[in-house]
Amino acid sequence: VKAPLFGKKMLQQLSKYKIALNYHNAHTGNYACNMRLFEATGLGCCLLTDNKSDLNDLFTPAKEVITYDNLEELEENINFLINNPRICKEIGKLGQMRCLQNHSTDKVLNRFIEILNIL
Length: 119
Prior knowledge:
The protein is mainly alpha-helical. Helix content is 50%, strand content 10%.
């Protein structure tokens, strides 16, 4: 087991990967809400993430990210992406475009400010 990486070093290492695996812990319920969604897609990795009820509000499954509902699907999707590098790369590019267009710090802060102004 390697030592954990944080910050810039973690992002530099993550940017070397073609596929990034994501799993939400039990505390998130059925919501897609962890940082790996945006770290991986923002760097252009093809994100393979557990399916959550609101994921399609953030990314288009099967186009910008790949989802799984169980270990069997996870394994099938890993094998598919490894055996189809062109598709894997395309999904990574589309996920990156969506992340940079819709989920940048500026966009998220502007939405937060709008919410605060409503209150």
